[in-house]
Amino acid sequence: xxxxxPHFRLIVLLVACCFFQLASSQPRTDATLVNMxxxxxxxxxxxxxxxxxxxxLQIIYTRIERDKHNTxxxxxxxxxxxxxxxxxxxxxxxxxxxxxALEKLNxxxxxxxxxxxxxxxxxxxxxxxxxxHDSTSATGKISVAHLIKxxxxxxxxxxxxRMYQFVGQQEINRSLHKKGFNEMQILRQFMxxxxxxxxxxxxxxxxxxxxxxxxxxxxxxxxxxxxxRKILLGRAHYxxxxxxxxxxxxxxxxxxxxxxxLQQLLQAIMFPSSVSRKxxxxxxxxxxxxxxQYLSQYPSETSYPKYDTGRFYDSYVKFFFRGSNRxxxxxxxxxxxxxxxYGFMTDVSYVADLANNIEFMLTTTxxxxxxxxxxxxxxxxxxxxYPFFYQLGQTIYQHELARHRKYTPNLSAFRMPYEKRDPAxxxxxxxxxxx
Length: 435
What we know:
17% strand; three-stranded antiparallel β-sheet; alpha+beta; Beta-lactamase; 435 residues; 11 helices; single chain
């Protein structure tokens, strides 16, 4: 029988608080997920699992259970989750930028513009570049819709820069923080600019089909103070002059986020009714369908841009299914965004098997840079990174295939009207892009 003496209760409370503080400073790992992962005997997979800190490995597996009304309920399971441990998100930042760009367009709809309206980017600083045409689009014109397509389909970089310029550094971060994504910090374009230069964004103009100006957004500067913490990684690095520097690389002021904030952002996009109104993006039903389509569409299904399908195969940006044969299971669609840079690899995915009626989310980051030198171009993507992601994805997928569900999910909301390539299209395919 527990003692009810107030001093005893106080001691119990203090011990519990001390335990919580100790536990909260430790990596979060759930036995349920560990037991699932231990069933995979692949040597590379086990090597990474047994050395999670060396690989800065973090995993969040999200189990989804539907009730009798088909309402989804989410449970996260963690492996070595440490929100204070930095990882470079690389191209993953294109996901929030796509949502923020669509959200901003909705606020400007009274100007007669939408995601398909032609847009032009001017330059007012010597480091900025203007953009008035897009040869990869069907019309030769630029639109936010086409920028998002290019950013999501194979993760092109300049479309991200243009969305960054349209939304603006200040609005990007204020909007994300207002939604509760406080651990997200998006400060850099992929242009090699300084922190000060990244505060400036281009002037942007929207025009109708006749070239008549519909909306003119002036060049902007972000005056907000930006809190940063010192982040030094690696034993050496190459600087922008390709000179070896025998000191760690400085990631201070780079784009940053926690793995959980990334998982929550994709959940807010894929399942907006599952998060608070504060955390949702102000998107139309058509905006959501648009994002779902291009988060999951394959390069082989896309005519504009026309990507070379030998170079950009169906599983190219689907890390959890990127096996040696490069093919995707016919019934599976992965709604995801990946990023890879500086030896970091990250994937945030919602996986739907539309034939077997299973679904789950999986979010993972890993650091594969065995020589400890950053910017030398010698990362272990092919020997460790891709094999690990594939083994992890297949481990969770096979578990979900075998898992009993009380209620079978209705996944019809994720059946998208994908495009089809015209076999008579003889235009040359794109083989090289900046991603």
